[in-house]
């Protein structure tokens, strides 16, 4: 009788551990939120979206206010178009600034919204016109090295 209880307890803890691993995998992949898609959709265009992904959080003052719904390339302007869904309890002004930022040790990218002071609010289908693209580390290093190389070649003249 005690052996079967031990086996049952071990089996219970193994199942609990597997459920915890699945939960953590869903959290890391931004798939753990089971929202019903309520809210309003906005659009923002960027020169470079970096590593931003669908389902990445949209934050304002560190609070998650929505999620990225879709990302695609505009074939005419060659800009990255980001469609986001904002939860209905949050409203943003028409002069809101959208910036792609990085957080955490893993470098998770998210979209940050900073509201302005305009009395008009964004509504379903509006576009956020003031955007700040993602900073790409490789591009920054390349610009730094190029500027240092041009400085050193200027010193030799």
Explained architecture:
- It is a single chain.
- With 157 residues, the chain is an alpha/beta fold.
- The chain folds into two domains: 32 residues; 104 residues, no CATH class.
- Helices cover 29% and strands 31% of the residues.
- The chain is built from two helices and eight strands; from the N terminus they run αββββββββα.
- The protein has an eight-stranded mixed β-sheet, with no helix packed on it.
- A hairpin with a 2-residue loop joins strand 2 and strand 3.
- Binned, the helix content reads 25-40%
**Approximate strand percentage:** 25-35%
Tally of individual domains = 2
Q: Overall 3D geometry?
A: flat
Radius of gyration: 23 Å
Poorly predicted segments:
none
Number of strands: 8
Structural class: alpha/beta
Task: Look at the structure and give the mean pLDDT.
Answer: 86
Main β sheet profile: 8 strands, mixed
Strand line-up of the largest beta sheet = 7-1-4-3-2-6-5-8
Order of helices and strands: HEEEEEEEEH
Give the number of helices. 2
Note the gap between the termini.
91 Å
Per-chain topology:
Layout: H1 2-28, E1 40-46, E2 57-60, E3 63-73, E4 80-86, E5 97-103, E6 108-114, E7 127-128, E8 130-132, H2 137-155
Parallel strand pairs: 1-7, 2-6, 5-8
Antiparallel strand pairs: 1-4, 2-3, 3-4, 5-6
Short structural summary:
This protein has 157 residues and is an alpha/beta fold. It is built from two helices and eight strands, in the order αββββββββα.
């Amino acid at each position: 009788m005690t052996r079967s209880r031990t086996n049952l307890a071990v089996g219970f803890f193994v199942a609990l551990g597997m459920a915890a691993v699945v939960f953590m995998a869903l959290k890391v992949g931004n798939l753990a939120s089971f929202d019903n898609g309520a809210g309003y959709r906005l659009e923002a265009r960027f020169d470079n979206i970096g590593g931003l992904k669908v389902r990445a959080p949209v934050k304002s003052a560190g609070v998650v206010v929505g999620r990225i719904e879709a990302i695609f390339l505009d074939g005419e302007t060659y800009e990255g178009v980001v469609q986001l869904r904002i939860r209905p309890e949050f409203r943003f002004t028409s002069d809101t600034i959208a910036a792609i930022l990085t957080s955490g040790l893993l470098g998770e990218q998210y979209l940050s919204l900073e509201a302005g002071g305009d009395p008009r609010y964004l509504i379903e289908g509006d576009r956020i016109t003031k955007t700040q693209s993602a900073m790409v580390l490789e591009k920054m290093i390349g610009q730094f090295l190029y500027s240092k190389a041009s400085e050193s070649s200027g010193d030799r003249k």
